[in-house]
Amino acid sequence: MNIIRAAFVRSIALALIPLAAAVAPSAASAAYPDKPIRLVVPFAPGGGTDLVARAMGITMGEELGQPVIVDNKPGGSTIIGTDAVAKAAPDGYTMVMATLAHAVNPSLHKKLPFDTEKAFAPVMLVGRSPNVLVVRPDSAIKSVQDLIAAAKAKPGKITYASQGAGTSAHLAGELFKKLAKVDMNHIPYRGAGPAITDLLGGQVDVMFATAAAVAPHIESGKLRAIAVTTAQRSQAGGLSKVPTIAESGVPGYSADSWYGLFVPAGTPKDVIARLNAAAKKAVQTEMFRKRAEQEGLTVSAGSPEEFGRYVAGESQRWSKIIKESNITAD
After folding, report:
1. Which distant-in-sequence residues (6+ apart) come within 8 Å of 136 by Cβ?
2. Enclosing domain of residue 160
3. Which family does it belong to (predicted)?
4. What predicted TM-score, i.e. pTM, was given to this entire model?
5. CB-CB neighbours of 305 under 10 Å
6. Residue 273: inside a domain
7. What are the tens digits of pLDDT across the range 90-125?
8. What's the pLDDT tens digit per position in 34-89?
9. What is the DSSP letter of 244?
10. How many domains does the chain have?
11. Which residues are paired to 121 by β-bridges?
């Protein structure tokens, strides 16, 4: 009888092992988060991505009950910071504030240290905004047609800055070159902050900057907005009177900038749901919406699946343009 009872107990114990293994992640997720969360920004401090991340981090931290700490890791066309997230534990304690570069880097670089499609899980599209073609107030370039004329008069001499190779500012410039049939010299920086500093200082001529990065400088009069890169004019107060590049003589031109959150692939779905809910709460606060409106950002608050589909579409669209224009970041 004792032998039979012992065998029965052993069989029950063995049967419970896979059940315990299945329950363990959920128990861990239920305690989430129990320590600070790192939000990697793959750009230098001071740019549009950094500003958006810091504004979101405050409210997300309050909602999650743990601080969300912004970690700037610039360089390598956002690859350095993004790779740090790809290699992080899939536990919800590391996120990246991604931009268009996330979708186009596989087309721009022959080899990446991660597989973009397999290494990340989408959390939420934060929002979309125009890039803004800006110059210094004393620049002789006062319109898109002035820029085209200057570039044709001095092929390869007009310089345009970006926050890095493969970023929205870089591709906005390359698309402009292609459609306007001009030659300009691209100068990449390790973030929007350093690029804007050199634009203000006269080291570069123009920049297709994110609205978030240059809005304060436009408002203060330190930079002049010539045009926006979206198909329609921006509804933001500071940009509502600024024409689009398309209506300024480059038909068919359209290039959005966007921000979105990713975590490492394999992060539990319930943890992603918690982050998505906190991100939605963050973008719906009065503080964030006011900043978004000032910076021309159209806020989004959709599901992880919607964001995944959006990024796949962006990757497909720009891959074709990159190939046709023979653009490379290597």
Report:
1. 199, 200, 202, 222, 223, 224
2. 130-256
3. Belongs to the UPF0065 (bug) family.
4. 0.79
5. 9
6. yes
7. 999 999 999 999 999 999 998 999 999 999 999 999
8. 999 999 999 989 888 898 999 999 999 999 999 999 999 998 889 999 999 999 99
9. B
10. 2
11. 263
